[in-house]
Automatic annotation (TrEMBL):
Protein name: Site-specific integrase
Compositional bias per record (Basic and acidic residues), positions renumbered to this chain: 17-26, 33-46, 66-82
UniProt record, GO biological process: DNA integration; DNA recombination
Region (Disordered) residue spans: 1-89
InterPro entries for this protein: CB, DNA_brk_join_enz, Integrase-like_cat_sf, Integrase_catalytic, Integrase_recombinase_N, Integrase_SAM-like_N, Tyrosine_recombinase_XerCD
Length: 450
């Protein structure tokens, strides 16, 4: 090294040259103008990029495959900013991305956490999005979604098979029927779920308007429930008489319980001496989200509190049901003693090792009972309707039936059993006709004599 650390093969620095360089006028950098954001081509992928500035001062890039396209989107975005509208130009979020990355994993769970939405409702929304919305509309960009898309989607759903074709014949069938189409209720529910999702998208300023609001959902006609006759119920109870869950089926019918409400009864909520049961919980299967690593659902059984005050009630048990529960408790004690492991969860109706019953397995048990009884197309929920129908036929007041079934509004009870009310009205008209004939008999005699 030379003096001052310079390498010996380099000539000494010239102070004269340094002086001339310092005197050379500096060049001003080229500018694009005062934040005009005109398009430029990106070297990495050849895309054209233009820029607008939001009222906050933040830069907002928009993209195009050509200079003209990028500049057109820039002008559109600027107009939206000037009109105080959400900037949609250049936005590429699809409906699928919004539903699966924003609405289902972020927006709705926050509502569940705040107590504004039931976890089971979130589970139902997720299922509907996966089955009936994303496969049909998922690839459409949010900003491009139109009423034409929505109308075409509803028509597709109306023709969509409701599930896999059955492989087994039911009692009395000679051949398998064609696959059933989605019910009008399912189509209308899908419409409602998408409407709610896009309402939130508008609130998030992801879209300007909710196009689903501009398209009518199909009208759902409330059909009267499957009306079991007393002979059918007698056959069902006969087929279930030796079942280990005999008391469960009996309590469902006696109290008009829903499937999950019966599965959620705990011994601490039952007072056999007083003949009462306090309803607090419902056991349900939550489908959950799909695990990204395994591709399987993170489903689970949950015991959740009943959602309305009307549902949380202390019910009086018929003496026959009390006796059945005593017998069931003794059988459960024997199962506990015989089991190597017992999950003491305090539930009345359990598996043979004390765990909560899987609702789908309960459905299969009921299908076997129906097949043995020769009763077709009968759901567990039809026992609840049978409870209300039998009470009404026995002359029990509609207000009392509302209390038994724990409907929040009397109108719900009357809507479900409106067909029975019509029969009562017909009977009243016939009775009045007889009275009128009797009351006017003398007058008719005089008229015929004249």
């Amino acid at each position: 090294m030379g003096p001052g650390g310079a390498a010996p093969w380099l000539p000494p620095a010239s102070t004269e040259g340094r002086s001339r360089m310092s005197e050379k006028p500096s060049r001003k950098p080229r500018t694009r103008g005062n934040r005009d954001g005109r398009p430029y081509q990106r070297k990495s992928d050849g895309k054209w990029v233009a820029t607008v500035y939001l009222p906050s001062g933040k830069r907002k890039p928009v993209y195009g495959d050509s200079r003209t396209e990028a500049d057109s989107k820039r002008k559109q975005a600027q107009r939206e900013i000037d009109d105080n509208q959400p900037v949609t130009a250049g936005r590429t979020d699809t409906l699928e991305r919004y539903l699966t990355k924003v609405w289902l994993p972020v927006t709705l769970p926050q509502r569940v956490q705040a107590g504004k939405l039931a976890e089971s409702t979130l589970d139902s929304y997720r299922d509907t999005c996966e089955k009936h919305i994303v496969p049909h509309l998922g690839r459409v960009r949010l900003v491009d979604l139109s009423t034409t898309h929505i109308r075409a989607w509803l028509l597709e759903l109306a023709e969509k098979p409701s599930g896999r074709r059955r492989k087994k014949l039911r009692p009395g069938e000679k051949k398998l029927p064609p696959p059933e189409k989605l019910s009008t209720r399912t189509v209308a529910y899908s419409h409602a779920v998408l409407r709610k999702a896009l309402n939130d998208a508008v609130d998030d300023e992801s879209v300007k308007r909710n196009v689903v609001l501009l398209v009518d959902a199909p009208t759902v006609d409330r059909k009267p429930p499957r009306e079991l006759t007393k002979d059918e119920v007698r056959a069902l109870l006969g087929a279930a008489a030796d079942h280990r869950l005999w008391a469960y089926w009996l309590v469902l019918l006696a109290l008009g319980l829903r499937r999950g409400e019966g599965l959620g009864i705990r011994w601490e909520d039952v007072d056999l001496d007083a003949g009462t049961v306090h309803l607090r919980l419902s056991v349900q299967r939550m489908r959950g989200e799909v695990d990204e690593e395994t591709g399987r659902r993170k489903g689970k059984l949950v015991a959740k509190g009943l959602k309305t005050q009307a549902s949380k009630a202390t019910m009086k048990l018929p003496a026959f049901a009390v006796a059945a529960l005593r017998e069931h408790g003794a059988r459960q004690d024997d199962e506990r003693d015989a089991a190597r492991l017992w999950a003491d969860e305090g539930l009345v109706f359990t598996t043979t090792i004390g765990t909560a019953l899987e609702p789908r397995n309960v459905n299969r048990m009921w299908e076997d009972i129906c097949a043995a009884a020769g009763v077709v197309r009968c759901r567990i929920h039809d026992l609840r309707h049978a409870c209300g129908s039998f009470l009404f036929a026995d002359g029990v007041d509609l207000k009392v039936i509302q209390g038994v079934l724990r409907h929040t509004r009397l109108s719900t009870t009357s809507e479900i059993y409106v067909h029975l009310l019509e029969e009562v009205k017909d009977g009243a008209a016939d009775a009045m006709d007889g009275m009128l004939v009797d009351l006017t008999g003398e007058r008719e005699k005089r008229r015929s004599a004249s």
